[in-house]
Amino acid sequence: MPIFCTFAPSFPARLSSFHYISNDRIAAKHINYLTTIHLYMNENKQTPSTKKSGFRSFPRNFWTVITMEFFERGSYYGVMSVLSVYLVLSTKHGGLGFSKESVGVIKSTITPLLYLLPIISGAVADRYGYKKTLTFAFIVMSAGYFLTSLCTDYALVFMSLLLMVTGAGFFKPIISGTIARSTDQGNSSLGFGIYYWSINLGAFIFPLFLIPYLKEINWSYIFLMAAIGTGSMLLLNIFIYKEPAKPANTKSFATILKEAVLVLKDYRFILMIVIYSGFWILYFQMFDTVLWYLSEYMDMTPVNNFVNGFLRLFMENPQWKFEAEHVTVINAGTIILLQILVSSIVKHTKALPTMIVGITMGTIGMGILALSPNAWVFIAGMIIFSVGEMTAHPKFISYVGLIAPEDKKALYLGYSFLYGVIGSGIGGILGAHLYVYFVDTLKNPAALWFIFSLIGVVTIIGLLLFNKFLAPKKV
């Protein structure tokens, strides 16, 4: 599905697994928009002669890692769609009763780690093998989810989640790396389109169908589900997954650190990343303050009545409720439905101005929440924000490639993930403290969303100034 191909310049640099970093559905839920990057990976590949085309052109290894990605991302986003609610929910209602500030510390630690670890894990996978690294990732990830289901002490929950995110950080570059090595110029666009959709389908299906059912039984079942979903992928890894052919990698960790210093010396690149990170401070509120606001402040009865009215056409007495996990469903569903359309609209536009338009839409989506606590206003805000995200982020990946030096394009693409480190590192703690002050104490949620909208406005102004005074004119 060639939804991002039009954004990618032609790069002769070949990416190693070390550089397979993305948003996440962001990423991309976050680690999400690799459909652009795949062109860089496959630039020097020769298309093999084959009579197969379309879905039949992909080897078994491709479908194996697509299955792994679906269950891993479904488990991850299933948990993340309610984690912040579960951690602060009172113990009498099945939660852990932690303070929002303490949860902000957890989220500002584990999420940046998810964006940092692929630097190391990609190098480890290239050096010691994808299969061995996947085994480690699934064991550690599954153990982290399982231990989180058992623990109630803050320190133990924190350590369990660190274990989980360590496994997730080692998992990600191997999947995209395997897909890159399982495709060629003839089918890589479709291959990474399938990869992209598998992420969003997991993020859509698990929170929509599994999470509401499991939390009604016991919140701990959500983490057990994730432990089973990721742990069972060990069987695929052991019996079906094959180590892909790849060139030997002799890059040392000292070399990796030296490369990082080279990137950090490029002040224009780092400044652009820092400015762009402002938008991701807003994005990561979707997993924290937005969920608290919905759970504690919003009356979603109008939406519930509308959906149940539709469901009555097919069943008797439906009892569907819009709850925290459905925020992730809106984001993933909007991307599934509209990404191709949005991509086609902006495919010929310049990268940086399009990023600014996308961030403006995201800022408007966040600002709409300040207008009214009406349920439909909330839904509209989430949808508009999601459209802004899918407009801005693919162009960001393209822009990084355009401004990078010709001999360091892969290196720059690898370190462009810093937006997630900064955005999530600041967003978790900042969001928690602002929420406690403006919503819990002052009972003024409109002020909270107004402040986050101002962060979006500052980001827009920063990128406008960057575009005017520092950005290369050719892009």
In short:
The protein is mainly α.
Describe the structure.
The structure is a single chain. The protein is mostly helical and 475 residues long. It has one domain: Growth Hormone, Chain: A, CATH 1.20.1250. The protein is built from 19 helices and no strands. The protein has helices spanning 34-41, 60-80, 83-88, 100-128, 130-150, 154-181, 188-217, 220-231, 233-239, 253-264, 267-283, 289-297, 301-311, 325-346, 351-368, 375-403, 409-415, 418-441, 445-469. It is globular and about 55 Å long.
Count of the separate structural domains: 1
Task: Tell me the Rg in angstroms.
Answer: 21 Å
Task: List the helices and strands in order.
Answer: HHHHHHHHHHHHHHHHHHH
Q: Main sheet, how many strands, which sense, barrel?
A: none
Question: Helix content range of the residues, please?
Answer: over 70%
- How would the global form be characterised? globular
CATH architecture descriptor:
Up-down Bundle
Q: How many helical stretches?
A: 19
CATH class: Mainly Alpha
**Uncertain parts:** 1-23, 26-50
What is the fold named in CATH at topology level?
A: Growth Hormone, Chain: A
What's the pLDDT, averaged over the residues? 88
Work out the strand percent.
Answer: under 5%
Could you state the CATH homologous superfamily? Answer: MFS general substrate transporter like domains
Structural class, by secondary structure, is: mainly alpha
